[in-house]
Design brief:
- By secondary structure, the protein is an alpha+beta fold.
- The protein has nine helices and twelve strands.
- The strands form four sheets. Strands 3-12-9-10 form a four-stranded antiparallel sheet, with helices on one face.
Length: 246
């Protein structure tokens, strides 16, 4: 019904019952092509779920046979969360135009003052991540974290940031000083081996990144739990096991 949507859309239809009995919920989780009436489509593709399935925990709309398999898997195994996996969202700079620079600007800043390279790091956006691979776009973040005195130690970077005017200086998402990025507790996690993926996608697009590369907030990453091989986990995340339509 929503051909342009890249995320699943749930349409909920509820009916109030006077009876104390809790009726089943009728679920349809199939594409509607419009070649028949919507009522006929629901009768043909619908299946029943007991209402107690819909708890405050995450739930899916798998067909009953697959749902039972999923429940069996969950009851006998720990989730990534239970294994202590760290899942992070990429950095929200508060002003990408100021803090994200291209190759030309990087060469200019480093050519005039070599120490500027200390706070210039490569980045990835969600669009740069594909299934099993990623491609650096030639963009960099000015990693002016809290505690970095940009004006004193990196005057050319300070001049660059200052050129964005008063509105930039007064932005809401900033650190201890207007030249600093907003506070983040996991900057060091970007230096570690991680599995990365785009924020919004219609299929799984996971890749492995072993280098110190920073992500913008159009992408996510996770640090595999201790004892779990990154490539093994990557294969599962990109497999049909996690991308089937149900």
């Amino acid at each position: 019904m929503f051909e342009s949507a890249i995320v699943n859309v749930a349409v909920l239809i509820t009916v109030k019952h006077k009876s104390n009995r809790k009726p089943n919920c009728q679920v349809v989780n199939s594409p509607f092509d419009g070649n028949e009436s919507f009522e006929e489509f629901v009768q043909r593709e619908g299946f029943d779920y007991p209402q107690n399935v819909f708890t405050d925990k995450p739930w899916s709309l798998l067909k009953p046979k697959l749902f039972l398999i999923q429940k069996k898997m969950e009851s006998n195994n720990k989730t990534l969360e239970q294994l202590g996996t760290k899942i992070r969202l990429g950095l929200a700079t508060g002003h990408n135009e100021a803090f994200v620079i291209d190759e030309t600007k990087k060469k200019e800043l480093c050519g005039l003052q070599a120490s500027n390279a200390e706070i210039i790091r490569p980045i990835l956006r969600g669009r740069d991540i594909s299934r099993f691979s990623c491609k650096l776009p030639g963009l960099y973040i000015l990693l002016a974290k809290n505690g970095v005195d940009v004006r004193k130690d990196y005057p050319l970077v300070y001049k660059h940031l200052e050129s964005f005017g008063e509105s930039f200086k007064k932005r809401g998402a900033q650190g201890q000083h207007w030249t600093n990025l907003r506070a983040c507790s996991f900057f060091d996690d970007f230096k570690k081996e991680k599995i990365i993926w785009i924020e919004l996608a219609d299929v799984g697009r996971f890749a492995l990144c072993k280098e110190e590369v920073y992500l913008l907030n159009s992408a996510y990453f996770l640090l595999p739990p201790k004892g779990v091989n990154s490539l093994f986990l990557l294969g599962i995340l990109n497999s049909r096991v996690t991308t089937h339509s149900g």
